[in-house]
Amino acid sequence: MNYLKKKKSFKISQISQKEFCKFSLCPKDYKELLLVNSNTIKLSEEIKNWYKGIEIGSDNYIKKSPFRFLKTVNVTSSFILGDTSVEHCKPFSGNQPKNNDILIVKDGLGSGLGEVALYKNNTKYKDYISSGIIGIEIKDKKKYYILGILKSQHFKDFININTAQGSTIRHSKLIAFNYLVPFPTTLSHANVNLIEQYISVFTQNVINKEEQIKAKCKLIDRFFENELFSSKKKANNYTYPKKSTLVSCNRLDTIIYSEKYYEYDTAIKSYKNGYFLLKKGNVSPGRTPDDYYFSSTKKSSIFYEWVTPKNINGRKLDYKTYIHTKSNTNVCKNNIILNGIRYVGNGIYIDNEDMVFSNQNTLVIKNFTEASNQLFLYTFLTSKIGKYMQMAQRNLGIVPILYADNLCKIPIPKITDMIKSKIIKEYYNPVKVNSKLTIKNYLEKEKKRNKTAGIHQLNSEVFVLKEKLDYIINKIIKEERIENKYLKFK
Q1: Which residues form the domain of 373?
Q2: Is the pLDDT of residue 57 over 60?
Q3: Is 76 exposed, middle or buried (0-12, 13-18, 19+ CB in 10 A)?
Q4: Any domain includes 7
Q5: Same domain for 470 and 371
Q6: Structural domain tally of the chain?
Q7: pTM: predicted TM-score of the whole model, two decimal places
Q8: Average pLDDT over residues 25-30
Q9: Tens-digit pLDDT profile for residues 137-153
Q10: d(Cα 276, Cα 202) in Å, to the nearest integer?
């Protein structure tokens, strides 16, 4: 949904009216934001407290510490903060966000500018924010309604048109505080309070599902760590590689000869149930069709889901993109799609018959016909151990690449059936949809169900909820009638 309107013409006097772009001749600086609804409140009026981050300098970064430095890359399309690439630092006197504060990206480029995330406290670390982020504390009564609105494209478009164009980083300063938060009117629905409640509870449900995904991912990693290392001490007989080892591996990269890789490799190869290797014929690169064009929405039946390393994050999709093509795909049901470049070890599992395409920077794995074996393989390859071993096996260069041959060198443990079933259940566990839901019991029942549903199912449900939120917010902005089917809980 794009809320930016292009102007065919404007007066010369307007060139000097915008404070952030006086005398600018860039056409992008004169787009207008679509907002039909006049029932609005300026964001600054709903803020109890706010603060900015600061920069710490390269000397303050360290590999491990109880202090983290949150950057703009940690504020993504997810409703909660992303922590897959968090930097650690020394303690300093910067601002620390509080639980349930909203973080806004005020500086950036492309789609990152204007991104928003809810900050949740963690007991393990103390966090600081960078200068590209603003932290705000919203009044409790409207907190989740406003968060839902700020996660919309409308807010991002507002930041975009009110931030001067730049060749490097764009700086929006505190322009976010001037955003007019739209509230429902009777033109959209007779019960405006009910619409506010729907947005609030849908937003809270998305947050809870994302929190459960994060918790279940950590639990899967612990299962592997405990199974491979709990029964014996970690290997301590590491030595530097001999010439014969270098010759047999035909590699001079140091990571595959590191102590950590040796530790993982030894633990798997000495595992009580044994291990296996992927067959080379069962791993192939993704395929970009010759005839194609992309879309952010599925416009017709000949638009198919398009997976690239950009929209895979850990064990989930961050957002969906689509491809229009008449070609065939080499991806089918029960396949695994893994990132093949840079941050390898991220991937998704395909559980339906719908056509899915993935580009040449991914690896498609078809090792087992049984879904349970493929699911287990997927959980290991996307685990902390599996990721590290893939990172080590990459061919380094301008763009680090994991080739199919290198992936097939990584040993995979034959985990006992009992542990295997527990691991699979955390990732893939369809749960019956809740019934007899009302606006009062919706969140309580959904949070209980979210604890048992698998990561795969929760990720799919997040997309459904986001589509509902986008639709309802779009209708509020345009003051158009909201169809009742979008106000159903199923």
Answers
A1: 232-271+274-414
A2: yes
A3: buried
A4: no
A5: no
A6: 3
A7: 0.93
A8: 68
A9: 999 889 999 999 999 99
A10: 44
